[in-house]
Design a protein that fits this description.
With 387 residues, the protein is α+β, with helices and mostly antiparallel strands. It has 10 helices and 20 strands. 24% of the residues lie in helices and 26% in strands.
Length: 387
Amino acid sequence: GRDIADTKAPRSRGEILHWADITDNDGKYEPAIIKAAEDTALLQYTGGTTGVPKGAMLSHANLTINVQQIIAWSSSLGLAHERVMGILPFFHVFAMTTVLNFGVKTGSTMILMPKFELDQAIKLIRKHKPTILPGVPTLYNALLNHQSIKREDLSSLKLCISGGAPLPHEIRTRFEAFSGCKVVEGYGLSETSPVATVNPITGLEKDSSIGQPVPQTHISIRSLEDPKQQMPQGETGEICIKGPQVMQGYWNNSQATDAVMVGEYFRTGDVGYMDEFGFTYIIDRIKDMINCSGYKVYPRRIEDAIYQLDAVEEVTVIGIPDEYRGEAPKAFIKLKQGRDATADEILTHLKSKISKIEMPEEIEFRDELPKTMVGKLSKKELRERTD
């Protein structure tokens, strides 16, 4: 055995260090005793998109079980020794589980990017021909709208996994048509390690669904007024999750922990419902809901309708103060390069898609929309700039 510090780093990219050599042990070092279900492996901080970030305590069991759940879900593909595209940063739990931990568990090659840059990502895809591409909706949208994408060959892809934010129907169908690869939408949070539900790879498909629970996971739709009351099938409520991947609690914040746990169920803060086949559907975040004259207006419904316009590249909707309605929707839109659209054209399109109470009070066109560090559209930043 030898100290890890004695192991020389590679002099060049051509030199390889073997893990067995680095961890070789002649008995001098005692392995740490880890209680997988009890010992915290990671403080995964929430994105803070609706408030102050909190440290979700994820145990060794939380993380390892979630990878096993993904492998069990994808068993029909027989995934092993894949080439996984690591565009998302590892500090985000989605990438840590679906790229890093999955890659280690299955002996797969990870194609990593120190920092996301779209042109470089396309070059790496062209060179290494990944078989699995995990990404957020804005990534798939950016790839579709890149000037060189029509010349690229994506036939190596076996599976695309979308998470982190709702995947607009228009983006999913366009990417599938172009790549020839199915885009499977999943759902989870920092507090659930993160994967809780995912759509099946084969068999029954449900459009706009976030899928069915992964193995050993239970989804319960609870009343928005009383989280202890379970809602009947098909009725709307808060999505709550129970399973071995649910966090131990928030670091040094028992009050916040108590606020999100109802027994063994974690309250997600997302509004949705479940159908008779166990598929779950997200309507929107509770905190994103806009209160218009006493009516609940969900931004996602407006966004999905606007995405149907071919000139639109990105859109996000927030609530703004309104003297008459209390709150009213405002849409922020980024158009595709070289395309034009007016606010009147947007509103004319929406008249046949959404109700009068859901119609945006304002439409603002921007060259760029703010995003989080993992590339998700940031409503929080827009609210702060608008206030």
